[in-house]
Amino acid sequence: xxxxQPFIDIRRRLHQIPEPGFAEFKTQQLLLDTISMLPQExxxxxxxxxxxxxxxxxxxxxxxxxxxxxxxxxxxTEDTSYEFRSTHxxxxxxxxxxxxxxxxxxxxTYFVQYPIDDDxxxxxxxxxxxxxxxxxxxxxxxxxxxxxxxxxxxxxAPEYPVGTIATRPGILFANTSELFIDLTGTGGHAxxxxxxxxxxxxxxxxxxxxxxIISRNVDPLDSAVITIGRIEGxxxxxxxxxxxxxxxxxxxxxxxxxxxxKTRIEAVVKGIETGxxxxxxxxxxxxxxxxxxxxxxxxxxxxWLQQTGAATVVECREAMTGExxxxxxxxxxxxxxxxxxxxxxxLHHAKIEPDEAAIEVALYVLTxxxxxxxxx
Length: 376
Ligand SMILES: [Zn+2]
Ligand SMILES: [Zn+2]
Description:
binds zinc ion; 8-stranded mixed sheet; alpha+beta; Alpha-Beta Plaits; 10 helices; 5-stranded antiparallel sheet
């Protein structure tokens, strides 16, 4: 019998030390210490920046099976009822990455004890929330040497009960891009508008025109979102604003519509420049590639769940959230799935308390599925 309690304990220890992207130093150390307590003859370990790659050597490998867990916390002040609250002021594991990591440790511990034929590669990836660890990790030599032939990841899902797994073949998460637009005109006295170029008015036009891209330029069956979440402009109530800044995000369900939306944004911005005789600069900030689940593998996994009864399987809808696991899936066949953790608070909420019973569900499903995959 494989005990899952140790991984609940590790989850609580990880929960206490949330760290921002590429600063997961204590997290990395705790994971390395835990891995070093296992019998070492079946494992090889490498680090990449604050990430870790672990190979559990198979008995007679013909392929490498990958599992990826992200490692970083969020700049949120925790407000849970936990005794094991964050000890890092202003930081919290509010996106379940503590779950993802402890499940990763559980999976690798299981296969050290019960070896399979194939190699298992467990990937602890830094900086999912930003600036994005997946892309540079994929480009690293450390990763290339152990590149898996197929790869899986999960994400906790507050809205599903424990024992439920949700996923879908094809697109699961959107293409995302940040959007920053800086406008510079000519400021002046509020009573002399004819001698100035008002960037508050320009910014207002810009917001409404950006919304018309979604309603007029994107195929209604191919969803897209442009949200301007923040506007800043001007200095005082009776001074015409010289500068304005718009900050937002773009989300699309296809790679093609992301580039179309950006082309349209650039045209709208050019029009505002001409119309208001001002200068505008666009910065797309951080971009995440879509999470696209390989159809056959995902369908096979969903059928396997159904047939074995390992978990209740739900075919979910795609979501407009972003995840940098998409970069792995752009190169390696695999999929991501939602793991039900049954909590009323959403991801990134200061009060989120995912149900730890889901750790046992995930370990049961992943260890059996990976073992089955290896024997196929
Ligand atoms: Zn998150
Ligand atoms: Zn997350």
